[in-house]
Amino acid sequence: MNKKTIGAPAATGRDRGKSAFRRRWLWVLAGAAAFALHLLLGRDSAFVETFYSRGVFVGLRWIWDYTLGLSPVPLLFVFWFAAAAYLTIKVLRFYSRPRGGARTPWPLRIGRTVLALAAFAGGLVFFFYVLWGFNYDRVRLEKRLGLETPGLDAAELAAEAAWAAGAAAEFRAAIPEASASVLTARGLPAGLESDLRRAISKVLTGLGYPVPGRVRVRVFHPGGWMMRFSSSGIYIPYFSEGYAAGSILPCEMPFTMAHEMAHGFGLTDEGDANFLAFLACDASGDPFIRYSGFLSYWGYISSELARAAPAEFRTLWAKLSPGMKADIQAVRENWNRYRGALTRISGRVYERYLRSQGVREGMMSYSRFVNLVAAWKKAKGGRN
Fold first, then answer.
1. Could you give the angle at the alpha carbon of 347 between the alpha carbons of 343 and 352, nearest 5°?
2. Distance between the two ends of the chain, CA-based, in angstroms?
3. How far is CA 232 from CA 4, 35, 184, 224, 242, in A?
4. pLDDT confidence of 214, banded at 50, 70, 90?
5. Which of 234, 279, 309, 384 has the highest CB neighbour count under 10 A?
6. How many helices (H) and strands (E) does the chain have?
7. H-helix or E-strand containing 88?
8. DSSP tag of 55
């Protein structure tokens, strides 16, 4: 005996189409609303600092780090695997569909594709700000710490460079494996990530910042693709973890990882992240880590000094120890292997990205690091 099924009628293709249309528009609007709110709040927002950076973001950080953040595999790998599986399933379903019937007109197909892409972009923007991006609007570090950061003249740059070179030479000499040759990974501490997390947590706590969760920064292999995009590391808000390019040299690794950890704790500005990475390296008890921080600081100062006073730069370069010169030259040669068209394009794209987040200095914000360290030393009576 046949029985009638009682209940709501099955959804038709038209109903499913309307539902997908509304859902996609919601994601478009959600992304636009998040970006508009970011623009409305602006930099130095006390509301963002209190409600988001020290409230919502702290909660999200804890939840993520003790759930998905416990994954032994980098989440970027998990994402790529999931994306490949999803695309494979979509392709198989497409080719297994029965042929025949009325075809959707091509203008409608194009419209649906454009809307789907716009919805995807809207979702990316929405989650970017919710998971991390609103930290761009928090109160700037130098304002919270009361630091005055005017530019340094040539004489001041030369003095900073000499100080950094002297400290770097001292810490390099304390590394057991050090010689006049380029430093190798043998000198890095076994628990580098944990050491850096403890050091930067200590620094941030001392400055009055929360340090929720356990921010991960994983060494990514192969890392050459990052360097081709002119990056030694990257923090990805969607995975709430950072990655250091496995292709950078060991003397760069501690500073790079500490920089990405600073981002993970909610400090978005590149100059702030450099500054905090330097303080974290210096707060470490390991000479290799401390050397990495001072070598990186010297690199930023020397770039500015070479432009402002080439003769002063040449004099300071001649005084560097053979081992430090070997490290610097090896770093330059390694980076030159990856420079090309992608490096130039990515630089322009990132410049526009930073300015869209309210960072007026753009890529030059990295160099604020020098002014911040100099101002910090001055505030501490000339001591770091």
1. 155
2. 88
3. 65, 27, 17, 9, 11
4. very high
5. 279
6. 16, 3
7. helix 75-96
8. I
Q: With 0-12 CB in 10 A as exposed, 13-18 as middle and 19+ as buried, what is 176?
A: exposed
DSSP 8-state class, residue 251 = T
Cα distance between residue 13 and residue 22, in whole Å: 14
Distance of CA 184 to the CA centre of its chain: 25
Per-residue tokens: 45: 């927002």
List, in order, residues 6 or more apart from 119 with CB less than 8 Å away: 23, 24, 25, 27, 28
DSSP 56: I
Contact 302, 324 (CB under 8 A): no
Measured in residues, the chain has a length of 384
CB 351 within 8 Å of CB 266: no
Report CA torsion sign: 247, 249, 254, 256.
negative
Cβ atoms of 250 and 188 within 8 Å: the answer is: yes
Residue holding tokens 């080439």? 310
The amino acid that residue 158 corresponds to is A
In angstroms, the CA 329 to CA 317 distance is 11
CA–CA separation, 271 and 338 (whole Å): 24
pTM across the whole model: 0.88
- The three-state secondary structure class of 201 is helix
Helix, strand, coil % over all residues of the chain, rounded to 5: 70, 5, 30
Q: Are 259 and 113 in contact (CB under 8 A)?
A: no
Give me 371's structure tokens: 């002014």
Lowest mean pLDDT among 55-59, 252-256, 334-338, 345-349: 345-349
Q: What is d(CA 369, CA 141) in angstroms, rounded to the nearest whole number?
A: 11
Residue-wise pLDDT for 127-171, tens only, equals 999 999 999 999 999 899 998 877 788 888 899 999 999 999 999
Residue 379, phi-psi category: left (phi > 0), alpha (psi -120 to 50), beta (remainder)? alpha
Task: Using alpha carbons, select from 336, 249, 262 the residue that is nearest to residue 291.
Answer: 249
Q: What pLDDT, in 10s, does the model give residues 310-330?
A: 899 899 999 999 999 999 999
